[in-house]
Amino acid sequence: MNAISPDLTFDLAATSLRELNAALHTATGESNARRWRVLNPNGRHAVAVGINAPLTVEIEGHVGYYCAGMNAEASVIIHGNAGVGLAENMMSGFVHVRGDASQAAGATGHGGLLVIDGNASARCGISMKGIDIVVKGSVGHMSAFMGQSGSLIVLGDAGEALGDSLYEAKLFVRGSVKSLGADCIEKELRDEHKALLAEKLRAAGLEGTVDVAEFKRYGSARQLYNFHVDNASAY
Question: Which long-range contacts (CB under 8 A, 24 or more apart) does 27-33 make?
């Protein structure tokens, strides 16, 4: 068996983004370094996309669009802010932004955990399909739009039309909600939901810092996506 090589550092001021992503795509986590550092991202788009190995990638600075998109197994930590589409279509693993995230963070995510230390802009978790998203700040309008499964947990406030056209994603907001979207309603926060919420907060490193009883739960009224024969002429 090959020995694990030392940790790797890529300086994007001297190395191309294509080289970085190509190296990450061939890494296995067994024969390659498991810890990677990326310097001087300077807002570049598509940094550390498509990883499919149990690596840890720390990015020292701000990133542009689609950072950590399609992530599987890896842990990607961004020491800065992230642009549009952070962790889009994430499959598994862990993505952590130490700053704020722009629009559509975690969009279409199938699994894994996305943690945002700051605020997330509009459409956070749009069309989420199993991902868990924890936002320590607030989220913008249309967050969890058409959310199918997974959870969105917001410690701050939520903007307009939260959960519009929601399917079965679970939404928890600690602060205020400006308005609910079509077919999204407030639901009772029962003991099993508090347990689920506590589990997700623990995974995000927030165990004991937040009282789960302070959250409100939102979900689908299950009216929009059911076919009613009496309304057939409207389809």
Answer: 27/51, 27/53, 27/55, 28/53, 29/53, 29/54, 29/55, 29/73, 30/1, 30/2, 30/4, 31/2, 31/4, 31/5, 32/4, 32/5, 32/8, 33/4, 33/5, 33/6, 33/7, 33/8
CA distance 142 to 126: 8
- Angle at the Cα of 199 (from 194 to 201), degrees rounded to 5? 95
Q: What is the band of 3 on the pLDDT scale with cuts at 50, 70, 90? A: very low
Task: Output the pTM of the full model.
Answer: 0.92
Structure tokens at 66: 């689609």
Amino acid letter, 105? A
d(CA 95, CA 47): 12
